[in-house]
Design goal:
169 residues, mainly alpha, 7 helices
């Protein structure tokens, strides 16, 4: 179990942070996942990818926490290299913040797809196994999630750049 913890602690933590934006809750959820893996170890099937089984448990832990806490999404701040000029750094920080806001506005299902595919780098086959659907369905859902994220980001960008009192289409 120590080897599994070493190997999967950080990816699970990153998954939870991207899903709920709360570092403390994410750390608790990682611990919960490992407890659940021990408790439900008999449900693991060696012919299926381990990551798919682990992330299914993580999904369940996340959903249980959401039901219990009904918390608001609070996204942290990213580290930015000090080698950028102040203007570039500020612009980069603003874009990251807009992206966080856009992610937070996505429905949970779309956010989860993006986290699993883009941040956790899971293969579509693994995501399909986690979600219990076909690979083709995952591809379509990820495509739609990326488009939805882009639309929200575009709207937030234009809202930020609008003049006070200006109508936003």
């Amino acid at each position: 179990m120590a080897v599994l913890f070493e190997r999967h602690h950080r990816p699970l933590f990153n998954y939870f942070v991207h899903m709920n934006g709360n570092r403390e809750l994410s750390e608790d959820l990682v611990q919960d996942v490992f407890v659940r893996m021990m408790k439900y170890r008999n449900s693991y099937r060696p012919d299926k990818p381990f990551a798919a089984w682990m992330y299914q448990i993580a999904r369940n832990a996340q959903n249980d926490a959401m039901q219990k806490r009904k918390f608001e999404v609070e996204l942290g701040h990213a580290d930015i290299s000090s080698s950028h000029g102040m203007d570039d750094k500020l612009k980069h920080e603003q874009e990251i913040e807009l992206l966080r806001q856009a992610m937070a506005r996505l429905p949970m299902e779309k956010r989860e797809l993006l986290v699993l595919s883009r941040f956790q780098n899971l293969k579509y086959e693994e995501i399909a196994s986690i979600l219990g659907c076909e690979v083709g369905a995952v591809k379509v859902r990820v495509y739609r999630a990326v488009r939805a994220l882009g639309q929200i980001f575009f709207e937030l960008t234009h809202r930020r750049n609008a003049w006070p009192g200006e109508e936003i289409a």
